[in-house]
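Researcher: Let's walk through a ligand-bound prediction step by step. First, I give you the protein sequence. Second, the SMILES string for zinc ion. Third, you return the three-dimensional complex as structure tokens. Ready?
Model: Ready.
Researcher: Here are steps one and two:
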Amino acid sequence: MERKSVRIILLPVGTIEEFILDTLSKATSRIFNCQVSIYEKIKVPDEAYNPARNQYSSSKILEKMRSFIKLENGEKALGVADVDLYVPGLNFVFGEAELGGRLAIISLTRLRQSFYGLPDDRSLFLQRAVKEAVHELGHLYGRGHCPDFRCIMHFSNSLLDTDRKSVSFCPRCRLPEWTSPV
Ligand SMILES: [Zn+2]
Ligand SMILES: [Zn+2]
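Model: Step three, the predicted complex:
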């Protein structure tokens, strides 16, 4: 298969298990048909922590990522964090991306069943992580939210939405270069 030179960089923000990063790397490489590199982790920035909310500002983490990463033409970077993220005005976010930009972040924290007092389900957790990663990267490629609840670009208000949607783009959202030959 012809590989595009456009790369996706996965940037662990804090310690993230290698297997999770590998899973994300393989899935995004396949779906976006490009090379994916995993970078050395950076520390979760202290200044992103909001003690009143006991959460981290995703926008402040994106700012920190910007100062750490030198992106070449067309490259995109996805931060992977395991702290609870928020943006002002929302209780929490699964992730944040600059629409049509180069930086995005996802949080793994709310993707575990144990967060909700349920027994952990490893494969469900990994599936959710892949979906969040592909969704935020979709935003970096300029895709907005999609009304089709099966499309990966459908907005996830809760994990019910995440679990209901597929990991792929609907024909309207998919870019031609993502269609890998079968
Ligand atoms: Zn979104
Ligand atoms: Zn769609």
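Researcher: And what stands out?
Model: DSSP finds four helices and eight strands in the chain. The chain has one domain: 4-147.
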